[in-house]
Amino acid sequence: MMPIVSVLLPFRNAAATLDAAVVSIATQTFTPWELLLIDNASADAGADIARQWAMRDERIHLVHEPRTGSHTH
């Protein structure tokens, strides 16, 4: 079935909260959706968590985005 809704979830270093966010989407009663987990160069286990979700559910896809821009503090 083709997804009717695409959900975009960008994240960076979100290992502590990513699983709960994906669970909230995955347990919806409306099922024709796809979830694009967009990793913005995470340095924590967020990308691993996203990869595990993508392997478990064919509606979930992991996209790696390189960190762009200059960030000075």
Structural descriptors:
73 residues; alpha/beta; 2 helices; 3 strands; 32% helix; globular
Outline the structure in words:
The model has no long low-confidence stretch (mean pLDDT 91). The protein has helices spanning 15-26, 46-56; strands at 5-11, 33-40, 60-65. It is α/β, with parallel strands linked by helices. The termini are far apart.
Mean pLDDT: 91
Q: Please outline the major beta sheet.
A: 3 strands, parallel
Poorly predicted regions: none
Q: Overall 3D geometry? A: globular
Strand percentage lies at: 25-35%
- Please trace the helix and strand order, writing H or E for each element: EHEHE
The secondary-structure class comes to alpha/beta
Number of helices: 2
The N- to C-terminal Cα distance equals 46 Å
DSSP, total strands? 3
The helical percent reads 25-40%
For the largest sheet, list the strands in their spatial order.
1-2-3
> What value does the Rg take, in angstroms?
13 Å
